[in-house]
Write a structure and sequence with these properties.
With 530 residues, the protein is α/β, with parallel strands linked by helices. It contains 15 helices and 19 strands.
């Protein structure tokens, strides 16, 4: 079934609005059909799960694994989505980097999309495709997590076990920031329930640049970064030295319930304000940031209602200040990953992010860069994060590849890892905003690059055996990928699920070879290809 094609003058006239209203019953029928075709109650790998599973168009996916004993603890699913319409070498690198780090097979949002889901026709296809997916998840999936990545400029360095654990750590810090800003009573009223944030990557510029927009001026100052964080030029006239205060929509992670509501609100804003004459009318980031600006304006208004002298961000004299009422109506749970705990953007970080070995004692590397311009600077040691080492050790122990070394210690000591010397983090996800040549520079330096084919096979075996991301619970739950690898797929088929944007109306398996065979020389090292 094909989705309606976008209207030529989407909601820019009364006639277009009328056509949209007439189409609502058809859209509702379509969504109900998609829900029936894509998702069903069932079990996968012995894990009791009344949430959507992929592959009900493929009988091989519904079989139970030999591991049929259900775990006693609570379980949740991790919905991993990559936004892409067609393959290229950067998409294939993103796919391989996710597979070897054991994210499980992703759902490709907008794959060969048609009509309103055609990314070649509208960049807003990403918003629509993801919204359709989320709308078809049942309420039982509300506490699951979703990770959405742009498909052509992202590479994954660490696995979902690290990312999920860090998400809840970041959520606790965001709770603290909000309570400090608003106080506990207002925080609960206008930002609650806390702990359920949708994290976006952090940008060093507000894009599109217009500081009359609340999305640029009303948003929080960067916590825990002082005026020398990037040296004496911090927040001066040069973007590389700005603090990362603004939202980037290329990396998104949060609970399904809040993400579903946020994507619906994004579509509502698009429908209400889309204007073909506006230069950024096709930018998903523009609309998402606008919602964030409304959220933060509402919180400022709540502060001022309680205390007219409250300290808050201020814009220019002609800043737009929406008259939003206080009450949580615009609470979209949007948050920004300022410290690169989850996501690392590239633009403006060229001086501060690099891939280097951590081969010194204690898995460290000495930092000689005097970022702050301190007259009394002394070199210091940045150490490889323990969660990163533990995750790679788990992968190492279940991968048969002698070239990786005798122990994971050996592999770790000779590998390179991407790190941020300002935030002192080893990032799970690298998002190459800005110049794309860095994608080619850094990918061959990823820890898995010379072992990717063996790691790919071991990842598929891992999930076919019914294993979770990690043996211990995170946030009281054991986490599994939302969708399995097909039982009849090849042992080295690290493919993905197409989301039905091509008009088929159902998830369908796309094997790795059909997507990435022609890009293998850009994805795997030459010694692996022979």
């Amino acid at each position: 079934m094909e989705l309606p094609r976008p209207l030529p003058s989407l909601l820019s006239s009364a006639q277009a609005r009328g056509l949209l209203l007439l189409s609502i019953p058809a859209v509702l029928f379509l969504l109900a059909t998609l829900s029936h075709r894509l998702y069903s109650d069932g079990t996968w790998d012995g894990v009791p799960y009344k949430r959507p599973l992929a592959g009900f168009n493929n009988k091989g996916c519904t079989e139970s694994s030999p591991n049929s004993s259900a775990p006693s603890q609570a379980t949740s699913r991790f919905h991993f989505m990559i936004a892409a319409s067609k393959p290229n070498k950067h998409f294939c690198r993103a796919l391989v980097s996710s597979t070897v780090n054991r994210y499980g097979p992703p759902v490709i949002a907008g794959w060969h999309g048609e009509g309103a889901l055609d990314a070649a026709e509208t960049h807003l296809a990403k918003v629509r495709a993801v919204s359709y997916y989320l709308d078809n998840l049942p309420p039982a999936a509300d506490d699951d997590l979703i990770l959405l990545l742009d498909g052509y400029d992202v590479q994954l360095q660490l696995g979902p076990d690290v990312l999920i654990d860090r998400y809840y750590q970041a959520a606790a810090l965001e709770d603290e920031r909000i309570i400090q800003q608003l106080g506990p009573t207002l925080a609960d009223k206008v930002a609650g329930p806390l702990g359920r944030h949708i994290f976006f990557g952090a940008d060093k510029i507000c894009w599109p640049v217009d500081f009359t927009r609340p999305a640029c001026w009303a948003v929080p100052e960067v916590p825990n970064m002082d005026s020398l964080a990037f040296g004496p030029k911090t927040d001066g006239d040069e973007a590389p030295y700005f603090r990362p205060r603004w939202l980037n929509s290329g990396t998104i992670m949060g609970p399904v319930r809040e993400a579903r509501a946020f994507f619906r609100s994004t579509l509502d804003m698009i429908n209400a304000t889309w204007d073909a004459e506006f230069p950024f009318h096709e930018s998903d980031q523009y609309y998402m940031a606008e919602l964030w600006g409304l959220q933060e304006t509402e919180r400022i208004n709540a502060q001022l209602h309680a205390d007219p002298d409250a300290t808050h961000p201020r814009g220019p004299d002609d800043a737009k200040w929406p008259t939003v009422s206080v009450g949580g109506k615009h609470n979209h749970h949007v948050a920004v990953d300022y410290s690169s705990t989850l996501f690392q953007t590239w633009a403006g970080y060229e001086e501060f992010v690099d891939w280097r070995p951590f081969a010194e004692p204690g898995f460290g590397r000495t930092i000689h860069q005097n970022v702050r311009g301190d007259a009394n600077f002394r070199p210091w040691v940045l150490r490889l994060a323990g969660d990163a080492m533990a995750a790679i050790d788990r992968i190492f122990r279940s991968t048969d590849d002698p070239s990786m070394g005798v122990t994971s210690d050996e592999l770790l000591a000779r590998s390179e890892f991407g790190s941020n010397v300002v935030t002192r983090t080893i990032m799970p996800v690298y998002h190459c905003t800005g110049a794309k040549d860095a994608l080619d520079a850094f990918y061959p330096r990823m820890w898995f690059y010379h072992h990717a084919q063996a790691l790919l096979r071991s990842a598929i075996r891992h999930f076919r055996a019914g294993h979770a991301f990690a043996p211990r619970p995170v946030n009281g739950r054991t986490w599994y990928p939302a969708h399995p690898y097909p039982r009849d797929a090849a042992p080295d088929d690290g493919g993905a699920w197409a989301d039905g944007s091509d008009g088929s109306g159902g998830l369908s398996w796309v094997d790795f070879g059909s997507m990435c065979k022609e890009h293998e020389a850009d994805v795997f090292s030459m010694e692996m290809l022979g």
